[in-house]
Design brief:
The protein has a domain at about 25-75. Helix content is about 75%, strand content about 0%. It contains 3 helices and no strands. The longest helix has 21 residues, at about 30-50.
Amino acid sequence: MKSPFVLFIIMALLLGSCSVIAGGVSHWPASLVAVVVIIAMKLWNDRVKILAWPMEFLLAAGVTMIVINLARLYMLPMAY
């Protein structure tokens, strides 16, 4: 894997921003799934080189994190 340190920085930034945005709702169930998907994306991208590293990959990782977290929030029951 190329640049595992840069991948670690990207993951730390994404998880830190999710913690700030989530407020009182735990984001960890969805963020754990997103981390696994993003690492799989990175391994796949190292082989086929579709996304440029690191900027295009950062965009794709951010969108992946947002979509998975929003999907989890959609599945939660409403808190009235």
